Amino acid sequence: MKTTLIISLFFFVSTALAQDTLSLKNAGSKGEGIAFSESASSGSANPEDHHRGLCSVIGTVIDKSSREPIAKAKVTLLGTRLSAYTSDDGQYKIDSISDGIYQIKAEASGYEPQIMNNVAMGNTNNAGGFFTLQKMEQEPPDFVAVEKNPQPVENPSPEYPEQALKDGIEGTVWVKIWVDEHGIARKSVLLKSDAEVLNQATLDAAMKWKFKPAMLEGRPVAVWVTVPFKFKMDQPKTNQPKAK
User: Fold this and answer.
1) In Å, how far from its chain's centre is CA 14?
2) Is 231 strand, coil or helix?
3) What angle do CA 79, 134, 92 make, to 5 degrees?
4) CB count in 10 Å sphere of residue 157
5) Burial of residue 133 (number of CB atoms within 10 Å: 0-12, 13-18, 19+)
6) Which three-class secondary structure state does DSSP give residue 68?
């Protein structure tokens, strides 16, 4: 029995520029990157006791992709109540740290947090804490126009499921594909199907597609595209689906 899989591609494209908000709740009065402690002062009357064995950590927090500084990122010395917020140039400083080995965590709204392990503090030495935060992946919204639609450069056909062949099942499966700024399929979502037996093979194939990314204002953007995968038997088999 000859089988075929005909795939017609229609684009219902949606996109949005990444909405990178760096607002952070309870960021302090000015977010100047100065350490603070929620605990009360020790009240020691001897200045030497107050400063003996205390260290500082000084560093910068930047965006991993753009290399730009991230303002109002929170940097925390885990296991303590000491933390600081970065200034506009991404710098921070945490003072009054006792001797020990610590973990330091950096976090900012819209970014994946990062933890630095095994930071040794001792002998009143200062430590450096340089962080590069990666933006969280955000799915693009639906139905936003772009100047140029994404174009498939690799679009493998799904395997015709064996059970569907045995039962003579044909039909169309509609899948929505999230195409990122690099043209990579990040997620496939089932929209509509004529036969459940065809669904998984379609979703698996959709994740292997690669595109030239959509363009908006001269730069690539993430979008959704909707693709109907058509399963049909007893016709000559086509090698690759074609975009229309």
Assistant:
1) 18
2) strand
3) 50
4) 20
5) buried
6) coil
β strands within the chain, DSSP E? 3-9, 14-15, 36-37, 54-63, 74-77, 82-85, 91-98, 100-107, 114-121, 127-133, 151-154, 171-179, 185-193, 210-212, 214-216, 219-221, 223-233, 242-243
Give the chain's domains with CATH numbers: 3-18+139-243 (3.30.2420.10), 36-133 (2.60.40.1120)
pTM for the full model? 0.51
Q: Which residues touch 117 (CB under 8 Å, ≥6 apart)?
A: 103
Tell me the HSE value of 135 on the side-chain side, using a 13 A CA sphere. 15
Cα(140)–Cα(186) distance, integer angstroms: 11
Following CA atoms 21, 22, 28, 33 in sequence, which dihedral angle do they give, to the nearest 10 degrees? -170
Q: Tell me the pLDDT of the chain (244 aa) as tens digits.
A: 444 555 554 444 444 433 333 333 333 333 333 333 333 333 433 444 344 458 999 999 999 888 999 999 999 999 999 999 999 999 999 999 999 999 999 999 989 999 999 999 887 678 889 999 988 878 888 877 899 999 999 999 999 999 999 999 999 999 999 999 889 999 999 999 999 999 999 999 999 999 999 999 999 999 999 999 999 987 544 434 444 3
Residue 86 contacts residue 72 (beta carbons within 8 Å) = yes
Burial class (CB in 10 A: 0-12, 13-18, 19+), 243: middle
Q: Give residue 42's identity as a one-letter amino acid code.
A: S
